[in-house]
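G., the chain you wanted modeled:
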Amino acid sequence: MVNAMTPQPQVLPDSESSALARSSAEELSRLLCQMPETERARVQLDGNDLVLPRQALALLRDLLVEMAQGNAVTIVPTHAELTTQEAANILNVSRPHLVKLLEEGVIPFSRTGTHRRIRYQDLMSYRAQRNQESKAALDELVSEAQDHDMGY
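Predicted structure as tokens:
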């Protein structure tokens, strides 16, 4: 059994896998929309029947969408604690920059001995806030460009 926190090699899907993921994601999305009240689904794998909860199907659809776009995917439990390197990788920033954010109190963290640990939920809250601020700044720039008739 693979633990969701055990680092797995990041392998990008090849074009055949991406195409299969795309068609599967589209079909799964269609089925989920057609049956919004369905709480579970029966899936057959090599002759064995599995029953999956709806949340797992939605997660599978999201995973397939990412694979269809050619992205490698890692699953992290929301309660997980990340190392500074793992958190920096998720934010796509350098580890020293992340440590600076931690020390400035921008992102909450705890210490395990001398090591800093960041809760995944806190990291995602920071990322959502950062994305929202970026969108607001971009909207403001677009508005100013339109006010000045800059052709945007």
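Residues 1-6 have pLDDT under 50 and may be disordered.

Shout if anything looks off.
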